[in-house]
Design brief:
- With about 650 residues, this protein is an alpha/beta fold.
- Among the domains are: about 170 residues, Rossmann fold (3-Layer(aba) Sandwich), CATH 3.40.50; about 70 residues, Arc Repressor Mutant, subunit A; about 90 residues, no CATH class.
- Helix content is about 45%, strand content about 10%.
- The strands form four sheets. A six-stranded parallel β-sheet has the order 3-2-6-7-1-8, with helices on both faces. It has a six-stranded parallel β-sheet with strand order 11-16-15-12-14-13.
- Helix 12 links the parallel strand 6 and strand 7.
- Helix 7 crosses helix 9 and helix 16 crosses helix 17.
- It is globular.
- The chain starts with 5 loop residues before the first helix and ends in a 16-residue tail after the last helix.
- The C terminus is likely disordered.
- Bound molecules: adenosine-5'-triphosphate and magnesium ion.
- The site of magnesium ion has 4 residues, from helix 3.
- Magnesium ion binds next to helix 3.
Length: about 650
Amino acid sequence: PTSDRPSLLDGLDPEQRAAAIAPRGPVCVLAGAGTGKTRTITHRIAHLIRSGHVAAGQVLAVTFTARAAGEMRTRLRALGVEGAQALTFHAAARRQLRYFWPRVVGDRPWDLLEGKLRLVGQAAHRVGLGTEPEILRDLASEVEWAKASLVTPEDYPVAAARAQRDAPASPAQVAEVYRAYEAIKNNAQVLDFDDLLLHTTAVLEEHGEVAREFRDRYRCFVVDEYQDVTPLQQRLLDAWLGGRDDLTVVGDVNQTIYSFGGASPRPLLEFTRRFPEATVVRLERDYRSTPQVVALANKVIGAARNRPAGSRLRLVGQRPDGPEPRFAEFDDEPAEATGVASRVRQLLDAGVAASEIAVLYRVNAQSETYEQALADAGVPYLVRGGERFFDRREIRQAMISLRTAAADPPPTELVTAVRSVLAPVGLTEQPPAGGAAKERWDGLLSLVELAEELAATVKGADLRRYVAELEQRAAAQHPPTVEGVTLASLHAAKGLEWDAVFLVGLAEGTLPIQHADGDDNAIEEERRLFYVGVTRAREHLWLSWSLSRHPGGRRHRRRSRFLYGLLPEQHPDARVPRGQQISKAAKPRCRVCGGPLRDTMEIKLGRCDGCPSTLDEELLARLKNWRSSRARELKVPPFVVFTDATLLAI
Ligand code: ATP
Ligand code: MG
């Protein structure tokens, strides 16, 4: 339509544009990482609003992590869109429930449950199970899986068997814990995260007038990362739609990383079956990453097994050439963290912004070593980025103190007042040395920086004005900027991008995680997680691992199986030893299962990776010998063989 300012659709390629300008109704974009799915939907929203098809307030866009929702809001703002909601499923449900609860239940909405494990512990105790933290965590994730999968305690044993759940107790016991947990929680009148979705769905399904009001208000629904939708979220989405079809979904089956929690890409893959008239678009140009990163990403996902039809897309890089991805092996984790920190330092010195660098890991427990190393190297970092900034305990405390102070503002200037209010909350003169305390301090400092910004830009802004600004930001979950290198889990990194990405801890037992071993589906999910990590990088990509956890520890860890076949040709380990050249006539076969071997590492081991093998010990001994002789040949210590030795100062 002529009402479009040329700039809006100019930024899209023909396929993206087709999805952006499709008339209202079902639209599905099925495409790989970095192909512009999120860009397409934000442009589509802007286009629909600008061309008068829908009012901004009628749009509800949802995704799965707070960071990704924040990213969507940032992009919408950049397109000049104000008033369209972009939230996580949970945040959207929470708002709706708060709004409708007084009318439906006639009371103040129940609070959100804090300390879930404590409640699960009480439930486990009632059932006579152990209450060790690991058991409680596993029980809690079983309950979460069941609720997200719309499985009741009664249905749990059958459903868990069908889904091959690996629970810490018998199915009947888990069902008992689930039942007891629900009872204790309801008794305490609190809601867990899944309840937000369950109750909102129930309100919309059971209260016609509420549903009508809601559906009058929201008319256009958009879901990013649709491959990770759970049955519960899908049911909520259906309740929102109420039989209408104004739904745009985008996703990448290869980035399904929550199936352990009940998510499934099936609704994405079956979208056209449900909406035969849908506009379907596939994208394959990768605008995010250099061809070097794209090539690696294609290899990673090309090795995936049992890929559903519709997921076999190849990314085609669009950007100019960049540096090759780099691989580095370290003796132990602190050495790895120090190596990464010194590399980060070099990037910063070369002018890369800290906010353009991320260190990504499999489990949050890994962050501590990296926090320490970055702090030692004098590198600013933030562990959770913008995620739930206003939900952090110290920020909540700060807000309470600031609100109280603003009711009776002191006669001092706007920065001094904020500083003095925040001092008792933990804003000391000098920053703490590092770790979580430093992170808290940085968060508080960012509140002071906001005050400074306000004092510089708004004349006569006082504490009241400042608190009003903060409240507004809190409502939008738009944190004051904290500049720093992002430390995040791979799960939390989904949908985001950085100029430089460090994927760390790529060792067996960490990625893939220990408990995935021996479970094909779980291994494939770990591989997709790795793919998500690789595809976050625009330009620089470092992949590293270490052979032991602690300095001086036994170097018994092996690098991740997902690295097989990825290491560059000159890498000694990636070479096919003489005499074992792959000949076209006789393809080497796995000695365990007889299947074809796909890369040099598998050939060297004589079996395909992941194949349960009793030959490991013998093969590993052979490999070790081979490594040592190569090391002697190259005149380097045995464990440096695999790295480009000049690459990292180890
Ligand atoms: P993911 O699967 O990781 O969520 P995505 O498909 O949502 O990725 P986007 O984040 O939308 O991809 O886009 C990746 C990057 O490529 C962004 O920086 C985006 O601005 C850029 N990009 C997308 N499409 C284009 C285009 N047509 N021209 C230029 N840049 C583009
Ligand atoms: Mg995206």
